[in-house]
Amino acid sequence: MTLIDTHSPLYAEEFDADREEALVRAREAGVERLLLPAIDGESHQRMLSLALSHPELCTPMMGLHPTSVNDNPRWREELEQVRRYLAEPPAGVRFCAVGEIGLDYYWSSDFVEEQREAFVEQCRMAVQMDMPVAVHTRAAWDDMCSLLEQESARASEQGGRLRGVLHAFSEDATTYERLRRVGDFVFGIGGVVTFKKSIVAEAVAAMSLDDIVLETDCPYLTPVPYRGRRNESSYVRYVCERVADIKGVSAEEVARRTSDNARRMFAIE
Predict the structure, then answer these.
(1) Which of these, 103, 169, 161, lies nearest to 128 by C-alpha position?
(2) Under 8 Å between Cβ of 121 and 149
(3) What's the CA dihedral at 189, 194, 200, 202 to 10 degrees?
(4) What is the pTM of this model?
């Protein structure tokens, strides 16, 4: 069984004591590729160092996370740094997506306009560079749906296309159907699908496997049976197994089809 963890910030400080061991465990679990989402300038070098030291396993993204816009007087400078990295990646680096970008109103509603501006700007970068986006959404799904519809239509009118992954999708089947109509998007399913009374488990039942990619978002959102502990990429297999249970197919089929979806979307060889 071969798996791809499409959202693995394994460069986070939580892994400083055993990062290499976590990578070994991921390989042993069948994980062939980890996609590393960017957060902001404070962590870019950690992410890039991991990608450069393990190019056979780790592929980075580049973007500005919405919560790094909050109360940050330099966020527009950070956006320009993202643009420069995308235009001229460091030697030995290939960015697979513009991400992690999005909207997050959970912690504060004081920076909505700034987050929206940063998100739209990065979506347009992605369209211009013909790259997918990795989209974070928390407590902002109505706005996100509206902005994706708007930006997808704008891209199409200009002869481009907006595409990517809805990271950590945890909404219902109605939201899934609305976002499917936006265009070429896949849905990142992680540990929440293993929780009891999970709304996303009900949504997965309505999803096509062609619309799903797997992720951990480690060290957060740890799946059952390790819920409450630190998450890591090797645990993506539990997400795979739960999706297989919901869909009534083998874990091997879920692994194959979701990995194929990830390879297509992120141009993974």
Answers:
(1) 161
(2) no
(3) 130
(4) 0.98
